[in-house]
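**User:** Here is a favour to ask of a fellow structure person. Please take any protein you like and set down a full record of it. No explanation is needed for now; the record alone will do.

**Assistant:**
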Amino acid sequence: MADPIILKTRRMLLRPPFMDDAPQIAERVGLKEVAWNLGRVPHPYQVSDAEDWLQDVPSKWEEDTAYVLAMTRRGEGVMGCISLRLMPMDVWEIGYWLGKPWWGQGYATEAATALLDWAERELSISRFASGHFTDNPASGRILTKLGFIRAGETELYGPARGGKYPCVRYAKGIAPDLAVKLAAH
C-alpha cells in the first residue's frame, strides 16, 4: 500500500482530501461550468455528494487503485482536486478539476506535473491516459504540456451534461489506440 502523500509545488500544497473539505469541494464543483467539464460528476452537486466521494478515497489509497489529492493554498482552501486512477492493463488515468476562480493561471499544470513526477519516481508508473470533452480545449493544452499526445476521439457520458458527448483522448507511454479504447472504463 502506498502511504498518502503530500506534495509541495511552487504555489500549492497537494494533500489527501479530508471530510472537512466537503463544503468547499461541493461549492467549487457545484458550479455548472466546472461540473460540465467532468465525466463523473452530477449537477447539481451537493455537500452530501462530496461526502460520499470522500468516504471512498481512503480505501482507494489502501487498494492502490487511486490516488486523490486536494490542490490547496493558504487562505484559499481547496482550489481543486487531481487524481490518478488505475485502469485495465496497468494504465493510470490522470484527472483533475479546478474551481473557476483559478482557471487559466497554470495551477492544474503545476499540480499535474507534481503528481506525474511523483508517480514516475515513487511508483515507477509510466503508462498514462487522459481526456477531455471537446468543448474544453484548455484541458487538452494542459495534457500536451505534460507530454501527452492526442490519441483520438470517442464519446463519453457526462452526468452534468445528461448524455454522451464527444471526448478527445490522450496517451503518454502507451499506444494511442489503447487510450481511446480505455475511455469507457
Residues 7-184 form a domain with the Aminopeptidase fold (CATH 3.40.630.30). Helices lie at 22-29, 32-35, 47-63, 107-123, 137-145, 176-181. The chain has six helices and eight strands. The beta strands are 7-8, 13-15, 66-73, 77-87, 91-98, 128-133, 149-158, 163-172.
